[in-house]
């Protein structure tokens, strides 16, 4: 019997095999071409050629941050397509401006704020200081934007010239703190939010207990916000040659000023002296061409972007390859969580490992912990604090340098240091802790008829979110919280040379500005990261012969290649896309806040958290 297929079947199989082989060859070829393209983009020399008289364009995108958040490929694409807010590293901006100051090829600094979404006041002050230093070279700074928010305007005020669109507006809204309160909704849903806390002013859990802000929270918030507002007014007034009362009046009397200008907001800001010119984008471009000359190929002014310019200056700006004596800087930015976490989040294990890495480097003569955190896990905070304590035991001086926020757990990790430095506008304190365990047994039973029952040999075996929290467990948690608060007070007492009673008087979960914290003895000095570096050099007796080295987890070669490839791909996808709308961004902010709470993973459910965002 002949089982061999007939000739027609053999022809069809042969044709299909050929098509399939061609398909696989084509797909593999396309993939190979994409890889070759991306690798060539990675390794090509794309340093720009800069003509004399060129303007450096600094155009920060999204938020200014102390440390870039490590992103997956999906997150990079989301950022490129406007589904998440981008970030700009503050150090990149500061380094570019500092280099341009002494670069004879750079004649002007153009600060383009159209894609900038804001930053905390400490970061704005650091950038403004760099701008003022740039001006000492005799070079000019021009700030431009279609509209200026409060954060935009702070930076723009330090420019020699401010250009705004003819349909633009300057909005100075002051500082506010508004939160969503869930108590009535929780009651209607029949949920039980079991909360255990210490600290009269510890307001992180108020939304689950109250329908509005408590008088204690209002008192504390208006105090630190008032300090920051006065700093803002003083800085802007000085930069623009105006009085603080006049800047404040613009914020307070916004409506009558618009009425006087018959609704013409550009005229209002011009008449008030907040901006120098109201122009269309075409007129702005021509104004800059007249100032620095034209790039005839691109029909715009001679310019180089910040990211391109950074490729022309010192490669090891972060001091990671440096030899000799080092001051190691470990950045602790974001929520404090138990375990290991990527950059942009503080992991008890991962941040502790960075401190240990710095400590075990024989060239490390001092460590600076740069804190920008509203806190989080009490357990993880203590893990980090102990690593710093071990470094000090080895004779390595430790300085805590507070950025925008170093509150609650952010203050906790700062206590094991020889000195604590803060900006006057840092938000710090919030010395207090809490625990929160939600249960939803009532709506299950009352609305769905679902009940949970059973037996156990000990109370903890019955702790479930669909059962009421056993009374003895709640009592035990409250005792743990009170003990944790006493530990917190003792840590601060020992670090600050105060009695626990003195610490308790300024603790109770209350938030303070850096200015007030300094007066109360919670910090040693007022200054920025550079001031903290100087203090560390003095403690370590280094003189001027040292390198500042930023310590981060070293990526593998594969991670470096993938990061560069993803960055290039994201840039190609998002090159011409607009930033997200205000509504879209608001929804993203809500999602981010919910995600932060969901990520909390303290093994004891005990948190030193202040809810004040770092960025």
Key features of this structure:
23 helices, single chain, 25 strands, globular, 2 domains, 615 residues, 2-enoyl-CoA Hydratase, Chain A, domain 1
List the helices and strands and how they pair.
Layout: H1 7-43, E1 54-58, E2 62-65, H2 73-80, E3 87-89, H3 90-101, E4 106-112, E5 116-118, H4 121-135, E6 140-145, H5 150-156, E7 161-165, H6 183-189, E8 192-198, H7 206-209, H8 215-240, H9 244-252, H10 254-260, H11 265-272, E9 277-279, H12 281-292, E10 294-295, E11 300-301, E12 303-305, H13 306-310, E13 326-333, E14 336-337, E15 346-347, H14 348-359, E16 364-373, E17 375-377, H15 378-393, E18 398-407, H16 409-412, E19 419-422, E20 427-429, E21 433-439, H17 441-448, H18 471-496, H19 500-506, E22 511-513, H20 514-520, E23 525-526, H21 529-539, E24 547-550, H22 557-574, H23 582-599, E25 607-609
Parallel strand pairs: 1-4, 1-12, 2-3, 2-5, 4-6, 6-7, 7-9, 13-16, 13-24, 14-15, 16-18, 18-19, 18-20, 19-23
Antiparallel strand pairs: 8-21, 10-11, 17-25, 20-22
Helix pairs in contact: 1-22, 2-22, 3-4, 8-9, 14-15, 18-19
Characterization of the model:
The chain is of the alpha/beta class. The protein has two domains: 198 residues, 2-enoyl-CoA Hydratase, Chain A, domain 1 (Alpha-Beta Complex); 268 residues, Alpha-Beta Complex (2-enoyl-CoA Hydratase, Chain A, domain 1). Helix content is 46%, strand content 18%. The chain is built from 23 helices and 25 strands. Strands 13, 16, 18, 19, 20, 22, 23 and 24 form an eight-stranded mixed beta sheet that branches. A six-stranded parallel beta sheet has the order 9-7-6-4-1-12, sandwiched between helices. Helix 1 crosses helix 22, helix 2 packs parallel to helix 22 and helix 8 packs across helix 9. The radius of gyration is 28 Å and the shape is globular. About 2% of the residues have low confidence.
């Amino acid at each position: 019997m002949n089982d061999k297929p007939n000739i027609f079947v053999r022809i069809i199989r042969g044709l299909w095999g050929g098509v399939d082989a061609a398909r696989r060859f084509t797909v593999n070829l396309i993939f190979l071409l994409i890889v070759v393209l991306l690798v060539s983009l990675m390794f090509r020399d794309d340093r720009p050629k800069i003509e004399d008289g060129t303007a450096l364009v600094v155009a920060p995108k999204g938020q200014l941050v102390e440390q870039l958040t490590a992103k997956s490929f999906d997150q990079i694409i989301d950022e490129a397509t406007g589904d998440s807010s981008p970030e700009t590293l503050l150090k990149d901006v500061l380094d570019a401006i500092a280099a341009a100051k002494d670069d004879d090829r750079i004649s002007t600094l153009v600060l383009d704020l159209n894609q900038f979404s804001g930053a905390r006041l400490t970061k704005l002050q650091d950038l403004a200081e760099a701008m003022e230093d740039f001006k000492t070279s005799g070079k000019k700074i021009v700030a431009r934007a279609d509209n200026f928010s409060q954060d935009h305007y702070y930076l723009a005020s330090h420019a020699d010239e401010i250009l705004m669109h003819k349909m633009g507006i300057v909005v100075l809204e002051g500082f506010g703190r508004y939160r969503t309160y869930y108590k009535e909704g929780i009651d209607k849903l029949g949920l039980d939010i079991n909360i255990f806390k210490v600290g009269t002013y510890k307001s992180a859990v108020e939304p689950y207990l109250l329908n509005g802000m408590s008088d204690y929270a209002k008192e504390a918030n208006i105090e630190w916000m008032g300090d920051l507002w006065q700093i803002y007014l003083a800085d802007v007034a000085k930069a623009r040659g105006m009085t603080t009362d006049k800047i404040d009046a613009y914020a307070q009397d916004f409506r009558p000023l618009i009425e006087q200008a018959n609704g013409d907001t550009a005229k209002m800001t011009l008449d008030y002296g907040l901006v120098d010119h109201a122009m269309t984008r075409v007129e702005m471009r021509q104004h800059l061409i007249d100032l620095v000359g034209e790039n005839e190929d691109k029909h715009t002014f001679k310019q180089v972007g910040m990211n391109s310019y950074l490729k022309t200056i010192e490669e090891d700006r972060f001091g990671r390859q440096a030899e000799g004596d080092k001051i190691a800087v470990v950045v602790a930015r974001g929520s404090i969580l138990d375990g290991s976490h990527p950059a942009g989040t503080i992991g008890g294990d991962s941040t502790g490992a960075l401190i240990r890495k710095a400590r075990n480097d024989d060239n490390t003569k001092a460590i600076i912990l740069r804190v920008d955190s509203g806190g989080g896990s009490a357990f993880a905070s203590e893990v980090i604090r102990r690593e710093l304590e071990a470094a000090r035991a080895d004779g390595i001086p430790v300085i805590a340098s507070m950025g925008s926020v170093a509150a609650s757990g952010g203050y906790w990790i700062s206590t094991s240091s020889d000195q604590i430095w803060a900006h006057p506008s840092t938000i710090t304190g919030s010395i207090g802790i809490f625990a929160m365990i939600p249960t939803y047994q009532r709506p299950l039973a009352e609305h769905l008829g679902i009940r949970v029952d059973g037996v156990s040999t000990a109370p903890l075996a019955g702790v479930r979110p669909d059962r009421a929290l056993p009374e003895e467990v709640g009592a035990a948690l409250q005792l743990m919280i009170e003990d944790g608060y006493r530990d917190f007070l003792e840590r601060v007492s020992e670090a600050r040379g105060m009695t626990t009673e003195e610490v308790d008087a300024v603790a109770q979960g209350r938030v303070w500005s850096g200015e007030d914290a300094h007066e109360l003895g919670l910090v040693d000095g007022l200054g920025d990261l550079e001031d903290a570096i100087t203090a560390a050099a003095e403690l370590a007796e280094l003189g001027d012969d040292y390198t500042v080295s930023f310590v981060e987890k070293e990526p593998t070669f594969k991670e470096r290649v993938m990061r560069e490839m993803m960055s290039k791909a994201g840039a190609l996808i998002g090159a011409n896309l607009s930033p997200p709308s205000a509504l879209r961004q608001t929804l993203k902010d809500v999602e981010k806040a919910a995600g932060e709470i969901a990520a909390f993973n303290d093994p004891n459910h005990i948190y030193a958290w202040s809810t004040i965002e770092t960025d």
